[in-house]
Write a sequence for this structure.
């Protein structure tokens, strides 16, 4: 079932106009929750369960060896071009 | 696998109503696994700790239900594959540019699927974390930061092995075949106390 969720997510991201995606995601971000950061939670689980999982490379633009906040804009600008 | 689940509620002297209408849904900001029916897995001690923390100065009651862990549960605690899939979903969201590693909340991951009716599970089981920043699932009086918490874990495996703070969130009220929802604390509400 999780595999279906991942496949759906990939297709949805690929097939949905970027502005629609951004709007939907903004609505999700507005929902305030006392939730842990997902990647911090994963790191915590890693320590808790003493597991190791492969570091997956994330495609992004690196500027000055750091992640630029303009990444999102650049990503969608390229899609639009 | 059979589960004993404990839900902590404020004691409003309404045990009959609670047993008839429970469990009760959490739709507050504390619902970090999404809106649903939150329980502690197996250990009533966690229900007591939550009662003291969530209702300081007030009385609380604990209800117990029985459930069956099955394939409708996204088991981020007991299933390593499910944890890896959660990670893959997080990475996909960051790859898309919608969010970043430093911003993505666990609750947002689940919200994404629920909003689109694409969340294929009826329940989620996960190591309970109230908040990474402030409160922790460990007793509040310890007041540990995340880093200290990890060290605490490394030093106190025996304590944690006895009472791992596993939470179960039922998306639907009777998910995992939940049955026998009864008040088990305080004693004076229990059927056998006559």
């Amino acid at each position: 079932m999780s595999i279906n969720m991942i496949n759906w997510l990939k297709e949805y991201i690929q097939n949905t106009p970027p502005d629609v995606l951004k709007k939907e995601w903004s609505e999700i971000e507005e929902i305030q929750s006392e939730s842990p950061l997902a990647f911090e939670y994963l790191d915590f689980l890693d320590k808790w369960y003493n597991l190791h999982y492969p570091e997956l490379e994330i495609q992004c633009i690196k500027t000055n060896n750091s992640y630029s906040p303009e990444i999102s804009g650049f990503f969608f600008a390229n899609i639009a071009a | 696998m059979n589960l004993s689940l404990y839900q902590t509620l404020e004691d409003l002297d309404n045990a009959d109503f609670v047993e008839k209408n429970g469990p009760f849904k959490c739709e507050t900001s504390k619902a970090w696994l999404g809106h649903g029916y939150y329980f502690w897995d197996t250990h009533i001690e966690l229900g007591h700790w939550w009662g003291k923390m969530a209702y300081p100065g007030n009385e609380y009651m604990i209800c117990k239900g029985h459930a069956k862990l099955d394939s409708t549960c996204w088991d981020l605690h007991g299933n390593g594959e499910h944890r890896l899939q959660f990670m893959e979903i997080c990475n996909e969201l960051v790859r898309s540019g919608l969010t970043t590693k430093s911003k993505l909340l666990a609750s947002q991951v689940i919200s994404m699927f629920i909003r689109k009716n694409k969340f294929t599970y009826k329940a989620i089981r996960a190591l309970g974390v109230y908040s990474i920043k402030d409160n922790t699932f460990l007793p509040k009086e310890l007041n540990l930061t995340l880093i200290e918490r990890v060290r605490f874990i490394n030093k106190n495996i025996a304590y944690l092995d006895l009472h791992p703070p596993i939470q179960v969130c039922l998306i639907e009220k009777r998910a995992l075949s939940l049955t026998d929802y009864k008040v088990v604390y305080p004693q004076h509400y229990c059927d056998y106390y006559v």
